[in-house]
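re: that chain from earlier
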Amino acid sequence: MKFVKFTEHNDWEGEDWNFWLQLDGNEAALKDLQSWLGTFDDDGEQYELDMTPVDEKEVDMLVKHSGQGYMDYENKVTGTLEVPQVQYKDTEPDLVEGQDWLNDNFYKGDIKRHFK
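^ sequence. v structure.
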């Protein structure tokens, strides 16, 4: 199985957390997620998605040897990604609302709850 890296830069906790998301079977949903991140968080300040595939064996090694702060720095996430729908005001995304949308859905590792 292959994984991609979703990174949350959490200023409140002063930590960065990597969530290794299952790529297999989630390609389309992950591309949608990457597109939305570019719309709402275009400077990569809080959330990043690196679509470079990484083998499960490497991910398992990273998770096994991960450090920990508020939460583990490396996290493996498997399952089927169900990306929440973006709510737009009118026809254009509102960047402030967009950041709220990101935080409501991904803050402090909530990306995990979107995998079934």
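The two ends are 17 Å apart (CA to CA).
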